[in-house]
Structure formats: C-alpha cells, structure tokens
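Translate sequence into structure tokens.
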Amino acid sequence: MAQVPVVEDILELSDEPHLVGSRCRSCGTHVFPRQDGCPRCTATDMERVALARRGTLWTWTVQGFAPKAPPYLGDTEHFEPFGVGYVELPHELKVEARLTEADPERLHVGMEMELVLVPLSTDDDGNEIVTFGFQPVEEERSS
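Result follows.
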C-alpha cells in the first residue's frame, strides 16, 4: 500500500517528509500552501521550497466534534478529539495543522514540534491517504 497526500503538491513524502511551500525571490516571504504570487509584495517570482520540519507551538485548541464530511475524510462514526494548532516554522511562517496530541496537560505554547504524517483514509486503489500534522518532540523521543 502506497501513501498518497490528501492534496497534490502539499507534501513531499520520503523518509523525512516535509511541507511544500513557496518563497518570494523579491522579498523573501514564505507561503503555504504554494502559490504563484506573493501576498506581501505582489511579485510573481516565487520558488518552490521545502519548509522546515520543526517549529514551536504558537497556539492550540482541541477539536472536540467531528467536522462535516465532506470535506472531512476521517471516520466520523468513531471520531476521537484531536489537537489543532499553529506551529511557527523558524524564519518562515506559521502553519495551521493537526496535532498528534489532544491532552491539554501535555500541550503548551512554545513547545518544540515536528512534522509527521497522519493517516486519513484509504482510496479506491487501496492507497493510504495522508495529511500532515505535528507531534511534540518529547513524544518522538519517548516512542
């Protein structure tokens, strides 16, 4: 079974997956997901870049109810609450993302986070559809 990103060209899948963004060659602004124009200076000289895999948790909450499906692809019948937050990637931007941790006692602003793949569903060909998320670095070390 292969892994397939939930949206084309949002993720590079590899041993160390990363988010795909754009950087403006004129002013240096980073954007995610990729786009052809700069939201800061309106230049169109954008380059494709791999964004940092680690950052710090800027703010967070817990999603306590199943989102509407569609567009949500997860299991709504056996829904489990999950963390959602903004992770600040150093010198780049803040990314809104699913968090692997939902326990408020284990999350705090400023903690180090790392990009991980989060399974969502399976497509008609049996491929695992994945999105991105962030996990606390401490969780990675203790696993």
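Note: Residues 3-142 form one domain.
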